Prior knowledge:
The chain is an alpha+beta fold. Helices cover 34% and strands 28% of the residues.
Amino acid sequence: xxxLPETPTAVTVxxxxxxxxxxxxxxxxxxxxxxxxxxxxxxxxxxEVTVAEADEWGIVVHGRDADRVPADESNLAMRAARLIAxxxxxxxxxxxxxxxxxxxxxGMAGGxxxxxxxxxxxxxxxxxxxxxxxxxxxxxxxxxxxPFLLHGGTAIGSGRGEVITPVLAKGTYxxxxxxxxxxxxxxxxxxxxxxxxQAGLDLPxxxxxPAMMSALRAGDPDALAAVLANDLQEDAIxxxxxxxxxxxxxxxxxxxxxxxxxxxxxxxxxxxxxxxAIDLAVALTASGVADDVRRATGPVHxxxxxxxxxxx
Length: 312
Ligand code: ATP
């Protein structure tokens, strides 16, 4: 006699970080967000979120920089779990465990990754029947980057970043990330500096650049390095000059190219293959330019269920 599969009481989902290969910022919209055109790439630094049925709601955060992440109702994973519980009409409380690897407040969307992971974990735990489109709509209410972290890969983000269109991208890219601690550099402060710099100018509606599309279609890291672009980079460097120094030094150490990831302060550096990434990481740390570097490849899949959590 075959036994029926047991209903899970806990589910773990792993979600990746992102880098914006291109970030063009357009005019302010009536809802207070800027129109964006961005090319996201999901990269292999992962947070894991485990949701387990419990007697009362709770959350614990482990891993690097866990003390900088709120372990309360304001945590984006908790908000995601509450949102999907309400959408599915489930009243069972959950305990959430987050294991962080993605730099916190670094412009790599760690909080959004945790929200995407929690959405998919709850949907799986409760056997939800949301379509991918419905999950995307829920995800977008939690943050502009959350739908992309459900999808992963390489994709255009339009609207305020939440409208995702997959991009044909060949090859694997080798990244080195420098998550420098950028005190005073928050997403609102960087956009505030951008707004002051652009005051009085008529910003065009942003669109993806054809050169970026053809570099990705060709799978050519040199061509990609030449077109990496971030409209917020100048403002992030003005607020936190060490970012500019890291970018400069990395080019001397053989990086193909680099840019500030999102609103920073993490610096994303593109290397010439896996050995190039190791050499670059060693040069940055040995020279004292950086004390923390992370290597990762992209593109990788978006949020996905894992059978065995890292912290099991
Ligand atoms: P963004 O670019 O979306 O502003 P980020 O990638 O720069 O985000 P996050 O790691 O997402 O940075 O953290 C931004 C802030 O969100 C943190 O300072 C933290 O207080 C808060 N936060 C809430 N939930 C989380 C979470 N699960 N993980 C990390 N930060 C969280």
